[in-house]
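User: Okay, second chain of the day. Same drill as before: sequence in, structure tokens out.
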Amino acid sequence: MTASDALRQLIHLWPDLTDALGAPTTHSWPPVELKGYLNAMERLDSVEAAALRALERDPAQLGARPVPVSLRVHDTMRLVEATLAECATIVASGCQIEPIPLPGSDWPAHDRARRTATSRADLADRRRWHYRGRTPSARYTALWLLARVEGRPGPFRPLTPAQHAHIKAVSTGALRRIETALDLVDQTRDLTAAHPCPCGGTIRIHGGAGTTPVAHCQQCGAIWSENGVVAA
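Assistant: Same drill. Structure tokens below.
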């Protein structure tokens, strides 16, 4: 995947992530709702899930909101925004051409007004990266980075291979986080040693991308779904 592909997909998926911010949590990863393999695990999972739901509905976390907030989605959005903004700042420091300087007192008086207007207009060019302390929206930053990757006109030098590579690494990583938060990618996870199979083997869970989670033991081959043991 190119940097351009990743940025375009990120821009396309951001509204879905915004919508998911207020959506009720229906699952977690690794999934805790696999039923039937150990009652003790189910009891532990129910306590953890209840604690997560309480946190997601705590208005003190993000300020008062009329709907429950998914902290998992919120944290993803904030992390992606901050990461993209840092990337843009680094890229701008290397490719953005310095504004035309204001004329000094030794500049010819008859041309000073024109030069001053040109300098101020160049400084205020909306194509410039003007990030000053407040993190811009992820879509704005992604669009700015996309314009640099595609070589759009503006007060910029062409990107170096290193700058291209940096944008690609950041944008693909951000896209992966968004896809994971929206449950759009396949995932595999091993349960911790505290949750072994009755045979003592490691339980591996497969799920994501909208599929029903399934777990199987790496040692004895037992398989579980949400409805209980499928095979043993």
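Residues 71-95 form the longest helix (25 residues).

User: Thanks, on to the next one.
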